[in-house]
Every structure is written in structure tokens, then in C-alpha cells.
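Hello,

Our lab assistant flagged a job as stuck in the queue for most of the afternoon. It eventually completed. Since we weren't sure the result was trustworthy after the delay, we are filing this so someone can double-check. Below is the sequence as submitted and the structure that was eventually returned. Let us know if re-running is recommended.
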Amino acid sequence: APDIPVIDRAYSKLSNSITVEWRAVLGATNYMLTAEDGDSFIETTVKNSPGTVTGLKPATLYRITVRSINSGGKSQPSPFRKVKTVLAAPILSVHSPSCDSIAVSWKAVHMAAGFSVSLMRSDGLGRMLKQNTTNTSLIFTNLDPGTLYTIKAYAWNANGMPGDDFTYNQRTSPDAPVDVKVAFNSGALRAVVSWMPTEGALTYSVTVFSGLLKLKCNTSSASCVVPSLQCGSEYYVSVTAYNDAGSSESTDAVSLKTVPCAPVNISIEEDEPGHLLVSWSSVSLGHYYVVFVKSDDGLEVHCNTSYTQCHFQSDCGFTYFISVFAYNKAGQSPLGDVFNYTTAPCCPSDFRVVFMSSDTVRVTWAPVRGADLYETRAAGGSGVVLCRDTATACTLSALQCSTPYNITVYSFSEARGSNTSCAPQHVATAPCSPEIKNISKEGLSVISVQWQPNNEEATYVVTARGEAGLWHCTSTRNSCTLMDLPCGSAFSVSAIARSPAGQSLPSYSIPLETAPCCPNDLILAQVTQSVTNISWSVGRGAQTYVTTLESPKGQAKCHTLQTYCLLGCITCGTNYTVSLRAISETGLTSSCTYQGYSSSSCCPSGVKLYRLSNNGIRVFWRASDETINYNADLRGSKGNFSCTPSSGLSHCDITKIPCGDVYTVVVAPVTDKGPKVTFCPKKIYSVTCSGSSVGMVISRGKSNVKHI
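-- returned structure --
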């Protein structure tokens, strides 16, 4: 085992440990320190000197020994030293009772004869304050508000030996904020409270109170918004600063007067036409009032007064929107109720009366302001006729014709009733409708119309209306005559009465029909010797026609719906009188006469051909009348030939006619107008070449071809 170490020094700097110093022992690898207080001991192994034994009791006397250790074992304990541990540190309780002081207190420490407490700004600025005391509390004053301080305290024993120290950081509470300002927002009824920031303050609390009402606003900035203030109230505003040490004193209260409340009990009266009186009740904190009156056309006027009423000019038919505001230094009161007042509507202007008929009148007028409804009243005759409508026009019906009336238009509004001061207009209704009693024909195109007069000082106009046009006649009596009516036309005849008051409704129409027109053109064409075709133009108004050809030898007649007709049994070479009757659908008839007609001359009979010696042909026939001239035509494939005899003869010759051909032969009378008759019978002859220029006529019966 190693040698026994020798303690050079043993001392206590902390209340729970003792430090030991000794001389090193050769061959020792470790050392064991032992502290004994009579009740217990504590051992600690260390490598070398110095060594510290911990876990000891404060202010306790210990016997300290040291033993050296190596692989061979432990030495004997060294001679002991007696060492007492220092006093325990006082446990501080610290707070800042005001912005410039810190109070420190602690519990009594065992074996302590006194205490030493020091204080200094944590940022190192300023001087350190130190106090010694035998008490267990003390107060540092005249400190900086809102400043962090470091506090150190220890106890000493009767020998003046200091014990463990205790360190504590404490901030003084903040000073009260300064330069408190209040800005009031009258529109939002809220206040913005601001102040200068306070050293060391972490948060602020704004208190706004009025009577029993208290509002608070907490913030970490240097301003705060206090909402939901009441109009017409006086508030007191104070600000308190806070940090972890506590709160400052509250600032002196600042008075805040809000805007006045909106005036109430508003009444609007039209004390006389064209003047409005607006009155209201006074309000708390209201210094003066402003009344705004805006009409529905956008024009706005106002009145500024310290009284509780205002006068305004007004016009008819306007709606006025009225609002009253109270004012003080804080601003304008909130918007209260907006009242509207509608004046009586104006009387209708641009009044016009238009008669639609003798018993109906249409009244129109220009729209007027404020009118929701109009009433038109017509007084006269046997009573009153009313019409109510929202439109600016009204039709009064069932009036008595040819009667004076007083017509008045009143305007109404739902808000204000009617304007009964509107003036009437005097009018008279149009004449009554006449009644046609009789229509008589005085000539081919002359019609007389009679009616029952039923108006005074009226002019009557009779109108015949049809597709052909209009015909009129005028009279102040009870009849007039329509002249020059066209034939074949249908008319509707009516009558009206006119006077300065207007025109009556037309009478009931009477139908009138004139006789059909005679056709302008009539053409006769003989189709055969006994049949004639007659055609004519359309006669206006005619449905059927009857045509007649008449001569001493007889009569030919045709009744048809068409504009042409075939008449048979016509005698050739006869003069006829021509007549036509046009008949309408209702049976009206017009007799029409035309220029006489002569039928064509009769066709000859016994037509024969004879060969002549000079290669010619003689055509022979029997004439029906020796005074008639005839013409003979021969038509074949080798040529066409014709001849006309001298007057009175019944034959004619054609020379140098080619043989060996078949000819169609027609002999027809020649008319005075030039063209030949085309309906005479045709005969076919074959002219053969027999080697001689003289031959005989040979007839081939069945083929109706005769050979010469």
C-alpha cells in the first residue's frame, strides 16, 4: 500500500462542499476523501489534489481525512482536519411594488448573523446598490421604471464568513404612459387611443368607462381601437402599462365626447301650399342641426340651425327625402330614419280631347309629377261618365251624341290623395249618325238618297263606296243625289253628319248595284255558210249574255255564260240586226245594240272542170246570184292556179296547167272587203296526160277523184 498523505489545506467555499489540498504520494493512483460530522460520513475518490467532497450540510463541522490508493491497497487515513461548511444562500422573494422600487425578502438562514444584498442594472449601466441587514427584507428605491435589475444576496456568520450567494433578475414595473391622445371616428363610432411607448412595458390596457359601462382594449403596440361606442355619451379614457413585474399607475382620465345621436320625433308638415315645416326633438350633446331635403329629381337643399325646426319650399308632385343630423365638435350624428314626404300631384297639362265617334271621346294629357292615378270626369247630358286609369289617356264611351260636356282630369297619388283644383274643359260631342230611309234610281247613273235628319247645324255627306271608287254628295237637308255612277258596279251607300264638334259614325250601309256594262267590242265571224261565231269583250257586272241575230228571214239567239257563241241557221247573203243583253247576277239587264251584220254570199254549186285545147282548164259552176263575183283556186303539187271571171259569168279559164297531177278545186264568192270565203266545198280532180291535148273528164266515184 502507498504512504499516508498529509493534508496541507482544507476549506469550504460552498455550503454543500469542502475542498482539500495535500501533497502527492509516490505510487498512489487515486485518493479517497472522507468527511464525517459524527452522524454520517461521505467518501469521494479523486485522481489528485485538490479534491472536493460534495453533498454536505451547510454550516456543519466536518472531520476531513485523505487516504492514498494503488493496486496494492489503501493507506491509513491522514491526520484529520476540522472544517466547517459555509452558510446556505438566502432564497429571495422579489417584486416591484412601484415603477421605481424593488422589494426583496427571504427566509432566515441557519447560523446566519447578517445578510448582504446588492442590486445593479442588468445592462451594466449605473452604480451598484448594496445593503447589509440583519432583517429578512428590504426595499431598493429611486430605481429606473421598467428596467431589468440583477439582485445578489448572501448570509454571513458570526465570524463574518460569507455563505453561498443567490442571484435573481427582477424588472421594475413600467411608468404610466404619457401623451395620451384620443381620436374619435364619428362614422364608425369608435375611438383610436394612442400614447408614447413606456420603457419596459410589454402590454397596455386602455379602459373606457361611462357610468356603469366599461370597455377595455389590450394591445402590445402604442395605440388601440375602442369600438362600439354609443352616440351622445361622454367617456373617460385611461391607459395602464404592464410588464412581468406588474402594472403602472393608470394615466389621468381623458374626456371623450362622442357625436350626438340622430334626432328623433321628426315631423313634416305642409303648413301652406309650397312650404314644408320640418321639426324634431333636441338631443344630448347636440350643438347645432342640419336638415337635408333631397327631391326625387336629385336636387338637394339644406338648413343649418341651432333650433329644432326648419322651413323649406316645395313643389307639387315631388317626393322629398328628409334627414336630420345633429353636430358637435366630435362630428356628425349617425344617420337616423330617412323620411319621405310627397306633395299633392300637379294638375294634368297639355290637355287634349279627340272624338273617336259621336259617343266616344279620347282624352290625353301630359304626365304630371307625383300622379299614380288619373280620373277623367265628363259631366253633361243625363249624367256623369267616369274613367280611372294609370295611363295618361282615357276613352270615355257611352256619351250622348251632339251634347255639350264639361271634362275634367284629376290626378291622384297614394301618398297624398287627389288634386281637386284642376279646371274643366268644355267640349261638345260629335253629331249623331243619320239613318238612310230610301235609295231610288232617277236615271241610268243617277241615284237619290234620303235620310232622317237628327242633328242641328250639321252637314250630311253620302258616300257610295265600291271597287270602282268613291262617289259623294253633300247636303244640309235630308237628301242628295249621286251622279255618274259607273255601270256594272256594286256599292255600299252610307251617310255621315259633320259639325264643328266632329264627325258622326257612319250610318248603316245600304247595298246598291248598277246595271251591267255593255261589252265594248263585238266581233262576228262566219264559220260555215249557215253558222256564225259571235265573240265580245267582258261587260263589267255581267254574269250571262243573250245575243240575237234577226232578219226578215228569221232569228238566231244564244244565251251563255261565255263571251262567245255559235249561231246556226244563218241564211247566206242576208242582212241581220245584232243585239246583246248583259245580265247581272241579281238579274239587272242592260240592252246593247251594235252595227248590223251581213252574212257572206252563198257558195256556187255544180263545179266542173273541162280540158281546153291549149293545155288549159275551164272551171264551170252554177251561181246562186248573177251579181256575185267568184274566184276559182286550183292547188296541186306542181303549182297553184286561180282565175276570176268577168262580172256575170259562171266560168273562168286557166291556161298551161301541167297534166299528170291531182288538183284541189275551190270556187268561192269574193266579198266586198277583199278576202274570199273559206268555207265553200272543195273538189279534187286528176288531170291525166293522154298524149293528146284534148281529152275527156273521167270521174272515179268512190275516191271522189275525177280524171280529165
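-- support follow-up --
The delay was a queue issue, not a problem with the job. The result is valid. DSSP finds no helices and 63 strands in the chain. The two ends are 200 Å apart (CA to CA).
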